[in-house]
Amino acid sequence: MNAVMLSASAAARPVVGAAAPRRTVGVVSRVPGGVTRGNTMHTVRAATLSLARSADDLRVGSSMTAASSRFRAAAAVDTPAAAARGTPRSSRRHAARMCGIIGIHRVAGNVSAELYEGLLMLQHRGQDSAGMVTYDGERFREKKDNGLVANIFDKKVMDKLEGSVGIGHVRYPTAGGLSASEAQPFFVNSPLGIYLIHNGNLTNTAQLLQNLGARHMRTSSDSEVLLNVLAEDINAEYVKAPGTDMEKMIFDAVTNTMKKVKGAYSVITMVNQVGLFAFRDPFGIRPLVLGQRKAEGDKDEWCIASEDSAFGPLGFTRVRDVNPGEAILITSDGKMISRQCVAGQISPCIFEYIYLARPDSTLNGISVYEFQLELGRRLAKRIKERDWEIDVIVPVPDGSRPSAIEIASYLDMPYREGLVKNRYVGRTFIMPDQRTRELSVRRKLNAMRSVFNGKKVLLVDDSIVRGTTMTQIVQMCRNAGAVKVYLASAAPPVKHPNVYGVDMPSRHEFVAHERDEQGVCDLLGADGLIYQTVEDMLQAGRGMNPQIERFDASCFDANYVTGDIDEDYLQSLEGAGRGKGRKGASKVAA
């Protein structure tokens, strides 16, 4: 058996640095208590018959500003219809993009309250829907729905989510994928009974679906496809060697799954009678972090999450990142087993550090906050070369603050919080449609006249993606009395689709598409604009972890780390539900 039991000290070794919704509240899947790990699959299959019956219960089922108007008119570009093609390589299945995932194993007691707290710490990664499932060694209990974590999991729900092991998920919406049935976790009853949560995006779903044959998908999510591929591989391992130890069988199965599946995936599963099981794609594109704490009797408890910022409130200590191509099993008795299933080479998505992750997270050995500070230092040197008269530096809250602080320090200019944020409005970047994003901007931000009146202002933002939000912000600043408004983006211009789990599928929605810096500046209505360079951005990351030889910066430079993305695939994304007809939507507002 290749799986190796790790002690706490050994575990610390780092490779990369130190439809209409049907509400289901507390629904139960019954599993006969006599089934234990290592029993033959004949007994396990008897258990899944009970699960199948329960599975049916589980899842049967005008205030837009004139500036924004001008922007939309100017940004509209007529594009010829795509030439007729054969069957595209991608399928029109929607991924749950920019998700947050967490799994917790406790020695005793209910885990639901801690999953709830963990999901709150990951809420920034998705505000459309949330889901949670717990397991007490005999029954699964599930709840998922559209909405924020705090609105879905009230006391009545939480009291019914019993069990010491559980997983939770938050997601944000994609075009055509707003039904609560698309919310995770996903469940398959055979073999064993498996729940799965996934952050990322698969890039070969059409091929995977074809190979799955008769398996029926209940949603349009690529995460459900991934779950079914894993289930088929587990079943195939049993057929090949019926007497195989269950732990070895699941590691062998996920090794086969990783060889088939392409794209980005950080995954946590709960497998009936096996344990909490997590794995990460061979490039480590999306983050996944392992945490540990000691329970009474010096027993180990474990947490696996998208970001280690979820660990602090729960009392977990960061152990390490899950390595690219690695799988980790937390058995029912709390033992941590790890196997490097396929060769891995860390190539994380650099957009995580720019926008997606919390500043108090450390991913792949890089502090998100320190990375953002370094972006500010590098950009400040280039701003100084511009012949701009600047009176004050103002960040666009919240993600640009570290960079703006460093810019103000380097230029020896005052830093002011001139844009006040209404924290009861969701993130505009992850809102489902352009009009909603535009209407939200003026509710979300208010410009203070005392900061802007009579001043030449440098606005600093973490990134400028679609542009309409920034157009409105520039106009707000002018309405508040700003004499001049200059813009600085801590990220380079976004020109290419992100295919690995961020909702940026269409080139035509990017303000920098087929425009140079001056063209973007004119469209945004600013007096000057400067972007970070791609090379400075990449050097900032490499300097903080030299073991990372390559980042995925494909939305900036069109170099896709998985090597399987071509023009046909990108065209199919733009023609599918997620990217169809989207032009000049809104900028990433923190």
Short note summarizing the structure:
By secondary structure, this protein is of the alpha+beta class.
What does this molecule look like?
- With 590 residues, the chain is an alpha+beta fold.
- It is built from 19 helices and 23 strands.
- It has an eight-stranded antiparallel beta sheet with strand order 2-5-4-6-3-12-11-13.
- α7 (205-212) crosses α8 (222-240) and α11 packs antiparallel against α17.
Comma- or semicolon-separated keywords:
590 residues; alpha+beta; 8-stranded antiparallel beta sheet; 23 strands; globular
Outline the secondary-structure elements.
Elements: E1 4-5, H1 8-11, E2 27-30, H2 41-59, H3 66-75, E3 100-105, H4 112-121, E4 129-135, E5 139-146, H5 149-152, H6 155-160, E6 165-171, E7 186-188, E8 194-202, H7 205-212, H8 222-240, H9 246-260, E9 263-271, E10 275-280, E11 289-295, E12 299-305, E13 317-321, E14 326-331, E15 336-340, H10 351-356, E16 362-363, E17 366-367, H11 368-384, E18 392-395, H12 401-411, E19 419-421, H13 434-444, E20 445-447, H14 449-452, E21 456-461, H15 468-479, E22 484-489, H16 517-524, E23 528-531, H17 534-544, H18 554-557, H19 567-575
Parallel strand pairs: 18-21, 21-22, 22-23
Antiparallel strand pairs: 1-15, 2-5, 3-6, 3-12, 4-5, 4-6, 7-8, 8-9, 9-10, 10-14, 11-12, 11-13, 14-15, 16-17, 19-20
- The averaged pLDDT comes out at 83
The order of strands across the largest sheet is: 2-5-4-6-3-12-11-13
Uncertain parts: 1-15, 17-72, 75-96, 584-590
| Helix content bin | 25-40%
Structural class assignment: alpha+beta
Q: Tell me the number of helical segments per DSSP (H or I, 4 or more residues long).
A: 19
Envelope shape: globular
The gyration radius over C-alpha positions equals 24 Å
